[in-house]
Specification:
single chain, about 70 residues, five-stranded antiparallel sheet
């Protein structure tokens, strides 16, 4: 993932995916990448770093009812 990518974050509390975040910064640590995230609703950068298995690209919402 790269800076600016819209992502979903897996909650460490209940293992559900949450929308509304984007990658604010990619931090390279050895051979692994960690990510600082920004909440899109208010632009706040979260204080924690996240690893690949805690993130996934944001899925597009289906609009099946529109032809």
């Amino acid at each position: 993932m790269e800076q600016g990518s819209r992502v979903e974050v897996r909650s460490r509390f209940d293992d559900r995916w949450s929308r509304g975040f984007e990658v604010a910064e990619v931090v390279e640590e050895g051979d692994a990448s960690r990510y600082k995230l920004k909440r899109r609703s208010d632009g706040s950068v979260l204080p924690a770093l996240f690893v690949d298995d805690e993130l996934r690209e944001e899925k597009k919402r289906s609009m099946w009812w529109i032809a």
